């Protein structure tokens, strides 16, 4: 009789795990509480407009290419993609802008327009981070199940490149004197929901990856990736049970043996949790069973920022925008402190706006544009009452959008959906609405992050941004590879 695995959550990590486990011959069932697969990497649509709910940047497709190849599929055949050039436009509140490209010579020329003396440093930044990533990549591909794993040779070899005493911003200040360029190569820490002034210097590899491997747009949006994964998983025999939330994880002593849903108990030889970690612990695992990850411990952990989202269907084109556009406010440090320390809203926030209709005509009716607007804000906190401040903050964001050329936007809006941290928590099951999960500070990385083979219980495994290696689509896919290898080993199977 086939061994069985139950996966809770059909996000990108859960779907990647389903593919790999089904290919290994296990009988896989996936429980998903929503009507669509994808979790935060799913689709939002209305009135003929289509939007990615969450991630819009697709970086480093190599990992997903390898997962597709492992199950006999070609990623680019299954999901057509375009590499973006320019990959994004950066507008600085302090003045000036960059149209960033993975063409190294053109990027040097772009930097020279802004800060001529800093332009040669870009090649040094790329060369140094190429070495750093090569050294650190094996650590992103292995589990860290205890402090003894820190003594492994692969990690010891990379320690001289990690500079744990340095923040990401301090690291980039060693390359670029112009503060705008320091921000241009550190704002990527927002992919982790962190400030570059607090984020470890290791994560300079994020901006390096953009320039080394480019930024890609899957046709239809990043949700096309998870839709394709679900389709292939079904072809491999995976059972996808949509609109069926898990109510609790079932245990026999300290071993996970399944989950309870409204339609009954679903038993399995192993359980994989792809739900938001804090939410899963506090809602699916009885408090009396948790020894390490108690409610009190979870409450005192550091969490990422959240996001104020606007999904806008707009009449007419927005040709003044590139596909991806980032506005960095003049007082960026204060903006981040408002988010992470003071937990208040600012009237001059940084923001990101995607104009995918520039690249992809499948996302809006002819003659119309689908815009995705993201403003980093505090995770849920008593200082901010979104029921009162939602409408006013919408006006703040519309005023900010004028700074990237959208002064006439409001009169052209034909469809609108707003998501605040309250909705991220209530509708998507995200603890405190922290959309990028646990923060990635040094006290919450490697073995100090919830472990892939979850340390509290037997036969319970984690995938997604709440476990090692962390947040962001490439490393979420890597978490699935790490956790499925551990699971298969524990069941005496091979991949």
**CATH homologous superfamily assignment of the largest domain:** FAD/NAD(P)-binding domain
- What gross morphology would you assign? globular
Largest sheet: 7 strands, mixed
* Total count of strands: 20
User: CATH topology of the largest domain, what is it called?
Assistant: FAD/NAD(P)-binding domain
How far apart the termini lie comes to 18 Å
Per CATH, the architecture of the largest domain is 3-Layer(bba) Sandwich
Number of domain units:
3
CATH class of the largest domain: Alpha Beta
Structural class computed from helices and strand pairing:
alpha/beta
How would you describe the overall organization of this protein?
The protein is of the alpha/beta class and 495 residues long. The protein has three domains: 4-56 and 221-301 and 440-490, FAD/NAD(P)-binding domain (3-Layer(bba) Sandwich), CATH 3.50.50; 83-216, no CATH class; 305-431, no CATH class. The protein is built from 16 helices and 20 strands. The strands form five sheets. A seven-stranded mixed beta sheet has the order 8-7-16-17-18-15-19. Strands 10-2-1-14-20 form a five-stranded parallel beta sheet, covered by helices on one side. The longest helix has 20 residues, at 121-140. The protein is globular, with a radius of gyration of 22 Å.
List keywords for this structure.
single chain, 495 residues, alpha/beta, FAD/NAD(P)-binding domain, 3 domains, five-stranded parallel sheet, 16 helices
């Amino acid at each position: 009789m086939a061994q069985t695995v139950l996966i809770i959550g059909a996000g990108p990590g859960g779907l990647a795990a389903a593919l790999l486990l089904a290919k290994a011959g296990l009988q896989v069932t996936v429980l998903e509480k929503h009507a669509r697969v994808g979790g935060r990497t799913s689709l939002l649509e209305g009135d003929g407009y289509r939007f990615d709910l969450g991630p819009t940047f697709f970086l480093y497709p190599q990992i997903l290419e390898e997962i597709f190849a492992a199950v006999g599929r070609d990623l680019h055949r299954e999901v057509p993609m375009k590499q973006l050039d320019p990959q994004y436009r950066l507008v600085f509140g302090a003045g000036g802008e960059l149209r960033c490209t993975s063409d190294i010579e053109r990027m040097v020329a772009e930097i020279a327009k802004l800060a001529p003396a800093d332009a040669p440093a870009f090649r040094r930044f790329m060369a140094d981070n190429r070495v750093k990533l090569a050294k650190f990549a094996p650590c992103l591909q292995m589990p860290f199940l205890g402090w003894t794993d820190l003594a492994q040779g692969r990690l010891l070899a990379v320690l001289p490149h990690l500079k744990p005493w340095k923040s990401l911003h301090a690291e980039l200040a060693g390359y670029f004197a112009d503060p705008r360029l320091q921000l241009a190569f550190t704002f990527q820490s927002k992919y982790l929901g962190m400030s570059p002034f607090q984020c470890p210097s290791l994560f300079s590899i994020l901006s390096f990856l953009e320039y080394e491997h480019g930024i890609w747009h899957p046709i239809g949006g990043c949700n096309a990736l998870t839709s394709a994964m679900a389709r292939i998983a079904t072809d491999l025999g995976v059972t996808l049970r949509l609109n069926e939330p898990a109510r609790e994880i079932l245990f026999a002593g300290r071993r996970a043996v399944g989950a309870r849903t409204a339609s009954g108990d679903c038993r399995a030889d192993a359980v994989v949790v792809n739900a938001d970690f804090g939410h899963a612990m506090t809602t699916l695992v009885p408090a009396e069973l948790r020894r390490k990850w108690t409610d009190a411990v979870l409450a005192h952990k550091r969490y990422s920022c959240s996001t104020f989202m606007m999904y806008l269907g707009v009449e007419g084109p927005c040709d003044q925008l590139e596909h991806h556009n980032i506005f960095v406010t003049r007082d960026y440090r204060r903006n981040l402190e408002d988010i992470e320390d003071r937990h208040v809203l600012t009237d001059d926030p940084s923001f990101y706006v995607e104009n995918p209709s520039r690249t992809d005509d499948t996302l809006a009716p002819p003659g119309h544009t689908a815009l995705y607007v993201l403003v980093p804000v505090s995770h849920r906190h008593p200082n901010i009452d979104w029921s009162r401040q939602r409408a006013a903050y919408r006006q703040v964001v519309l005023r900010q959008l004028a700074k990237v050329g959208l002064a006439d936007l409001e009169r052209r809006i034909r469809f609108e959906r707003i998501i605040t941290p309250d909705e991220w928590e209530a509708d998507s099951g995200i603890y405190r609405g922290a959309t990028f999960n646990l923060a990635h500070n040094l006290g919450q990385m490697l073995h100090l992050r919830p472990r892939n083979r979850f340390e509290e219980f037997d036969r319970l495994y984690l995938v997604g941004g709440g476990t090692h290696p962390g947040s962001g689509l490439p490393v979420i896919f890597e978490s699935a590879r790490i956790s499925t290898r551990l699971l298969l080993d524990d069941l005496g199977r091979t991949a």
